[in-house]
Write a sequence for this structure.
């Protein structure tokens, strides 16, 4: 999966023995198995995906389209598409999402906010037959 550039693939990996202090900006897909002390932000208009594994810990704000969490996040989360909270997910901070999938065992200590995108107005054509 590494290296392929299509929707939902992982292009980069922060390994389990890696500790990063500072903001991380990425495009495409990123998996975090280590620790990041800083914001994790998906740049660009292309679809983005972030996986925070069961071994990972992120201390900072996260901004991404599709987020899968099975580790720990301390900070606010902004998911513009889908947020998946796996059984070992632990989030301490406010969470903003468009769509949410939450498994039993996942914990959020903060406010959950559904960010609604205005739905297109459906126009019905009336025929005079």
């Amino acid at each position: 999966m590494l290296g392929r550039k299509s929707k939902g693939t992982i292009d980069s990996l922060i390994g389990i023995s890696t500790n990063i202090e500072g903001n991380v900006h990425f495009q495409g897909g990123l998996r975090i198995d280590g620790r990041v002390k800083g914001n994790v932000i998906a740049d660009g208009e292309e679809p983005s995906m972030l996986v925070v594994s069961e071994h990972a810990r992120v201390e900072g704000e996260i901004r991404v389209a599709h987020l899968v969490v099975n580790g720990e996040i301390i900070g606010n989360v902004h998911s513009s598409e889908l947020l998946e909270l796996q059984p070992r997910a632990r989030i301490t901070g406010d969470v903003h999402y468009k769509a949410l999938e939450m498994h039993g065992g996942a914990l959020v200590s903060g406010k959950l906010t559904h960010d609604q995108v205005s739905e297109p107005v459906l126009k019905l054509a009336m025929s005079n037959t």
In short: The two ends are 56 Å apart (CA to CA). The longest strand covers residues 77-85.
